[in-house]
Amino acid sequence: MTGWVRVGPLADIDDEDVIRFDHGDRTYAVYRVAGKVYATDGLCTHEQVHLCDGLVMDCVIECPMHNGRFDIRDGRALGAPACVNLKTYPAKIEDDIVFILVE
Amino acid sequence: MSPIRAELTVDRKRRDYRLIGGAGERAKSLGLVGANWYKPAVPRSVMKELMGRRDADAIRDTILWYALILGAGALAVLSLGTPWAIPAFLLYGTLYAGPADSRWHETGHGTAFKTRWMNDLLYQVASFQVMRRPTVWRWSHARHHTDTLVTGRDLEVQAQLPINPMGLFADFIGLKLAPTELVKVLLNTTGHLSDEEKSIIPEMEWPRAINQSRAWVAVYALVVGACLYLSSWIPLLFIGLPSVYGAWLYNFFGLTQHACLPENVLDHRLNCRTVMMNPAFRFLYWNMNYHVEHHMFPMVPYHALPRLYEAVKDDCPPVYTSTWAAYREIIPALARQWRDPSYYVRRALPAQRRARAAAP
Questions:
Q1: Class of CATH domain A3-102
Q2: Hey, are the CB atoms on B299 and A65 less than 8 Å from each other?
C-alpha cells in the first residue's frame, strides 16, 4: 500500500547530510540539501552498503565503501562501481516534519 | 587459529586464490563474503568532517610529483652515455612508477580531489604509469575492500601462500606485474576478457576495459615507433619500462600493508598494518601507511588519514613505529611461512592487551 510515512523532525537531518530510516522490512536514506528533502533506497545498488554512512556533496550521495555515486534527485548512478540506478521516493516537509511516500 | 581460518588454510594451494575454481565458494559458505567487518564507533559529525573533500592538497602534491619526475628525467638525459645514467634512470623510474601506485589507489577511491574530472584524469595517467588496467583494477580493488584477504575472493593478495620466495622477489622488483599486464592488455585489445575478469567486471563495463587497452597499445606503438626511428631504447626507458624497473618502491611500501597477516578474518585490525613512516615516504605513498584506518573507512581522503588514526587509535593494535619495524616482523615471518604456510602474525587487539596488562 502506498502512503506518506512520517520520518521525523527536519532538525534531525543536518543540511547536506543523510539519515537512515527503516520502515516495514525496508531501509531508506533520507537527505536534506539546501532546504529540500529527498529519499532513496537505503542500500547502494553495488554491494548493499548502507548509504546513510556516506558523504553528501550537493545532490550526490557517495557510498561509504566503494565510492559508488548517485544523484539523489533521480537516483542516477554516476559512474563505476555504481552501475544500477537507485530507486527514489517523493519526500516533503510539513510543519518541520519530514515525510516520504513509500510503497 | 579461528575455526574459519583453520578450515581455509588446510593444505593451502596457490589455486585456492583463483576467483574461479578457488576457495571462494568455501569462503561464501563460511559467511566470509560481503560480510560485516568490525568498525570502531566514530561520531557522524567527525566522520563527515574527515570524509570532506578538497582539491588543494592533491593539486600541490601532483605538481610536486611531476616536477620531480621531470627533474629526474632531465638528469637522465644529461647523463646519457655515462655511468651516471644508471642511477639517474633508476631515480626517474622510481619516481615515475613508485608514487603512481598510491595515486592510482587514491584517485580510484575518488578521494584525492574534490573535483571529479581531476580524480578521473590522474586515475587514467597513474594507471598507465603503474601499469594496471584502469577498469579491471578498479573492480579488483573494490573486491579487495569488500573481501579483504578472503582466499578465493581477493585478487590483491601480494604474499600468497605457500610462499614462493623467487616469485615474491620477482614481483618485488617488477618482473611479474608489468609483463603479465602487458599480455592481458594485448588480449583485451582483441576484444577478449578472461572469465576471471568477466566475473568481477559488470558486462556494461567490458567495452570500456577493451577500449582502454586499445588506447594503451596505441601509446606503446608510438613509443616503439620512436625507438625504431631513433634506433635507440631510450624512448622505452622513459615511457613503458619504468613501470618495471621503478616498481620496487611501491612493492616496498605495499608489502607492509598485509604481508603475513591472517587471511579470512573479518577485522581489519588483524589483517592490515598501520606503519609510522617518515614525511618523504608519506608523500610518496600518500599516507597509505595508515592502512588499518583506510580499510575501515575507505572514503576518508589521504590527507585526513592522520586525523582518522587519532580518532580510532585506542581501538586498534599498536602501530609499527617505523618502516624498519614493520620489516623486522615481515621478513622473518615470510621465512617462517615459507616453511609453515599455517603460520601468521597475530595482532593483539586493545581488549586483549588490557586483559594481559590486568593479569596478575
A1: mainly beta
A2: yes
